[in-house]
Amino acid sequence: MAPAAYTADELAQRFGLRLHGDGAVRVDGVGTLARAGASQLAFLANPKYRGQLAQSQAGIVVMREDDANGYERTAIIARDPYAAFARISALFEPRPARDAGVHASAVIDPSASVDASAHIGPFVSIGARSRVEAGAVIGAGTVIGEDCVVGAGSELIARVTLVARVRLGQRVVIHPGAVLGAAGFGLAMEAGRWLNVPQLGGVVVGDDCEIGANTCIDRGAIEDTVLEEDVRLDNLIQIGHNVVIGAHTAIAGCAAVAGSARIGRYCLIGGAAGVVGHLEICDKVVVTAMSLVTSSIREPGEYSSGTPLMDNRSWRKNAARFKQLDALARRIGGRGTSD
Amino acid sequence: MAPAAYTADELAQRFGLRLHGDGAVRVDGVGTLARAGASQLAFLANPKYRGQLAQSQAGIVVMREDDANGYERTAIIARDPYAAFARISALFEPRPARDAGVHASAVIDPSASVDASAHIGPFVSIGARSRVEAGAVIGAGTVIGEDCVVGAGSELIARVTLVARVRLGQRVVIHPGAVLGAAGFGLAMEAGRWLNVPQLGGVVVGDDCEIGANTCIDRGAIEDTVLEEDVRLDNLIQIGHNVVIGAHTAIAGCAAVAGSARIGRYCLIGGAAGVVGHLEICDKVVVTAMSLVTSSIREPGEYSSGTPLMDNRSWRKNAARFKQLDALARRIGGRGTSD
Amino acid sequence: MAPAAYTADELAQRFGLRLHGDGAVRVDGVGTLARAGASQLAFLANPKYRGQLAQSQAGIVVMREDDANGYERTAIIARDPYAAFARISALFEPRPARDAGVHASAVIDPSASVDASAHIGPFVSIGARSRVEAGAVIGAGTVIGEDCVVGAGSELIARVTLVARVRLGQRVVIHPGAVLGAAGFGLAMEAGRWLNVPQLGGVVVGDDCEIGANTCIDRGAIEDTVLEEDVRLDNLIQIGHNVVIGAHTAIAGCAAVAGSARIGRYCLIGGAAGVVGHLEICDKVVVTAMSLVTSSIREPGEYSSGTPLMDNRSWRKNAARFKQLDALARRIGGRGTSD
Questions:
Q1: Is the pLDDT of residue C68 over 50?
Q2: From CA C120, how far away is CA C108, in angstroms rounded?
Q3: How many interface pairs between A and C have CB atoms less than 8 angstroms apart?
Q4: CATH class of the domain comprising C160-303
Q5: A242's torsion region: left (phi>0), alpha (psi -120 to 50) or beta?
Q6: A163 touches A146 (CB < 8 A)
Q7: CA A44, CA B215: separation in Å to the nearest integer?
Q8: Per-residue CA distances from A108 to A127, B115, C122 (Å)
Q9: Contact A105, B141 (CB under 8 A)
Q10: Name one GO molecular function term (chains A, B, C) (predicted).
Q11: What is the pLDDT of residue C2?
């Protein structure tokens, strides 16, 4: 099967963008500005790569109006070239067929319901009272427990687990290995032994959320753990019970959010960052990679913790001094911090 | 099916607690103090929420004797309201049916043994010489390799992997995606290439342990990796080969314990904390979130590393100074640290 | 079945090593120097354990020539005792049978190809146009999507996912729960909502790589994510899209490498370390545990960030001073850092 191919004219017209240069140029795939060939589409968004433009062999380049001044080959002009590239390149994305129907090997509880337009792959099990809505795709090896909902158009790529009481909105995408609705880490110490606190809540995931591979979202203790719409979680993230994450917030890989934390809307949480439990982060907060949030953040802005990377010998010297920091500060007359 | 409902009288009697107020009040679920309705049970443990009591609509509130003075509605009096709530709320926990028997799709090696009272779900495979004891539950998609034991009453929720030589005690709970008994990360460099060091040990998990979703516990190189009884591991934790974790220790999500570390009893390891290999942590040590333990800890107590969160502009200035810390300290006459 | 047993003579001869003492001593397993019995083989590599040698009951000890001076029991002499032990102990490793053939429950797309000598376990699904080469082992519950290749002699232990366009070289080992080829975390913000950037690349894994349990390697956005040969990744690691990792590099558990970072050859990245995206690390760099690499590293050597662990009371005082560090430095006349 030959890949789909499109002329610059066709692309400009389909996406409502302006054509610059020869509209007959045809592309059948994408490439980076540095390496794309004559039949590939590339983009220029970051000014730091502008120098690559003159040498680029790309058949079509998506770029801003300014960058096209004097450009003698074919361009498609966009205010936001990266977003335009994202939309155009979707034309070239291979989409595996996921026909409607239930694979013969799937095990579905009689009390569950599966829309006739949904796809249920091999080795899927679906528990009591769960519901899979129109057009949803449940990939191979997925386990859906009791009282779950997979909203219309959602896709569980493969080997996802929804343990219990997980309600997904529409067009939610969940990558392999993710576990939603496991019992939260609720423990009481009683007579020298741990006692489990039953986790009676569920997980609610809003429309258009995406959840990365091997990410975990625990179900709530009493109320639900909540992701509002369009939340984006990368891989290997831990979301504790009763966390609430506001709409359009994105969290990078390996971050951890402890129980009952509330994160606002339009936040960006960096990779391997941590958020301690029972605090609030307001809207539009950026937390840089591997920073730890230990108290509530009430002002939008960018926040960080940690120390810079150094060669190990220098680091050892400076790190040792960190232990003397309060004493050093006192010696030079610094104000005491806690006493 | 109507949910179970209990009167305050019934609950007080069943759990050996004292009733305060009208024993005929009936509840069929739980709620938070702030949001529970008249048919729900709530609890008051943390004094910071005492102010919510007057407005609470909860049918029954579990609380300490002191807090009940003057309280005009129905309460159940407990010395430890949180633990009492945990026990009572278990009455309202939906427990999916896991009937005894082996699902038709399961693949069980002829040399394996499964107790007749155990539940084996769909798409489970059990390898040679492994044993599943009385009342154990092996959830859908679980893979049990060779020479494993699942002790009586243990539950592997779904999609768990026991690779080889994993022996679980009784009443162990393992959440989805957890991997126990994978080969530890043992490498020798030989002539410029890595050589695997065979991992001949196993994993031993004591009674009443609980292991979170997507957590990994590697098998030992020569001897076993060991969790003593009642150890609680949250999600996405890495436990390296030959680690030993003492009884009643709890570790929060995303923590990492490197090979051959020994952690004592009744320790609390915070989220995303790290423990370097080949060291010892004594009993009753608390390590705060995202701290790194790089040498043995011989005294009980609370330990931390890291720096506080700041706005990024301030952080950049201070972090840059961290690189000069040894030089600054010398300038003000601080004692040298390593030379 | 009795375990295999070997005399010291046989072992020395098989591995081309020199025998010291009685060649008739026979062993059928391995142990640590401290605990091995008369029928077990141990090793002495780290001089710090030399003191254990005199009391060791091990039947055979692998050691350096020097350490054998005056040793009166049986030894096998090796320049690198740890590597020699690794090779010898492989004789005692139980290798589960993985016969050639496809389990009856497996679901294989008609356009996929599976070599007749490969083993396909229960509940495996293999998607369109994927290929499993000679002698490969695909363990239970593994999901292989479209356009993947599993090279000759590779082993996917169990419950692995190759999502799409993942090409594994020869003798690659992947532990349970690992996810390769999931869509990278590529997002553009458009009109206040996230827009997915299609992830059209794949993942290429070189010969002899090993990938730990629950580790994730995302597929590239335009070009591929690449692991060169003999790369070793521990458990729970996140490798972002378009990362390139040089040959013979090893990364410890819970590390995170963000998109488009390039890591050189023979690097050692410590546990829970982080590497920010779009930077380069040259060959032979060591990054210590939980350090964060935020800019390119151009010189081989060891690098660190973070602060030392302290008792929490001391840490609080010193950490509070970290916030005043720039002000303190100015007071004693330090050079400003950014203005």
A1: yes
A2: 10
A3: 237
A4: mainly beta
A5: left
A6: no
A7: 41
A8: 6, 25, 19
A9: no
A10: UDP-3-O-[(3R)-3-hydroxyacyl]-glucosamine N-acyltransferase activity
A11: 56
Whole-angstrom Cα distance, residue B236 to residue C214?
9
Residue C62's pLDDT band (boundaries 50, 70, 90)?
Answer: very high
Interchain CB distance below 8 Å, A289 and C292: yes
Give the span between the Cα atoms of B56 and B38, in whole angstroms: 9
Say what the pLDDT of residue A338 is: 44
Q: How confident is the model at residue C291 (pLDDT cuts 50, 70, 90)?
A: very high
pLDDT in tens, A214-249: 999 999 999 999 999 999 999 999 999 999 999 999
Which residue is listed with tokens 């802005």?
A301
Asked if B253 and B212 count as a contact pair (C-beta separation under 8 A), the reply is yes
In this structure, how many other beta carbons lie within 10 angstroms of the beta carbon of residue C295?
Answer: 11
Tokens of A116: 């006739």
In this predicted structure, the answer to whether residue C114 has a pLDDT above a threshold of 90 is yes
Model confidence at C339, pLDDT cuts 50, 70, 90, reads very low
Helix or strand run (H / E) with residue A320: helix A312-322
pLDDT in the model for residue C334 = 55
- Distance from C-alpha of A152 to C-alpha of A229, rounded to nearest angstrom: 14
User: Which stretch of DSSP H or E encloses residue C329?
Assistant: helix C325-331
In this prediction, residue B332 carries a pLDDT of 85
- Give A237's contacts (C-beta < 8 A, 6+ positions apart): A212, A215, A216, A251, A253, A254, A255, A256, A257
CA distance A175 to A155: 8
Q: Which of residues 36-75 of C touch B (CB under 8 A)?
A: none
Q: Residue A114: how many CA atoms within 13 Å on its side-chain side?
A: 24
Q: Does C253 touch chain A (CB under 8 A)?
A: no
pLDDT the model gives residue A95: 86
Q: Looking at chain B from residue 93 to 152, which residues have their Cβ under 8 Å from any Cβ of chain C? A: 105, 107, 123, 125, 127-128, 141, 143, 145-147
What are chain A's partners, defined as 3 or more CB pairs within 8 angstroms?
A: B, C
Domain residue ranges in chain C: 6-92, 160-303
User: Quick one: which H or E segment has residue B66?
Assistant: helix B65-68
Q: Which two tokens stand for residue C151?
A: 């090279």
Q: What pLDDT does residue A333 have?
A: 76
Round the average pLDDT of chain C to a whole number and report it. Answer: 96
Residues of chain B with pLDDT under 50: 338-339
Token pair, residue A70, equals 């004097």
* Minimum Cα–Cα distance from A214: chain C residue: C214
**Which are the contacts of A295, defined by CB distance < 8 A and separation ≥ 6?**
A276, A279, B309
Residues of chain A with pLDDT under 50: 338-339
Q: What is the SS3 assignment for B263?
A: strand
CB under 8 A, 24+ apart: contacts of C151-158: C151/C207, C152/C115, C155/C98, C157/B163, C157/B182, C158/B143, C158/B145, C158/B161, C158/B163, C158/C121
Q: What was the ipTM of the complex prediction?
A: 0.96
A316 has a chain C CB within 8 A of its CB: yes
**How confident is the model at residue C119, as a pLDDT?**
98
pLDDT at residue B3, as a whole number: 67
Q: Which residues of A158-187 are buried (b: 16+ CB within 10 A; e: fewer)?
A: bbbbbbbbbbbbbbbbbbbbbbbbbbbbbb
CATH superfamily of B101-303: Hexapeptide repeat proteins (2.160.10.10)
Sign of CA dihedral C307, C311, C314, C317: positive
* pLDDT reported for residue A183: 97
Architecture, CATH, for domain A6-92: 3-Layer(aba) Sandwich (3.40)
Give the Cα separation of B82 and C239 in Å (integer): 41
User: Beta strand pairing status for C285-287 and C301-304?
Assistant: parallel
Residue A30, CB-side half-sphere exposure with 13 Å CA sphere? 27
Residues in chain A: 339
The residue with tokens 């006692």 is: A195
Exposed, middle or buried: residue C64 (CB in 10 Å: 0-12, 13-18, 19+)? middle
Residues of A assigned a catalytic role: 241
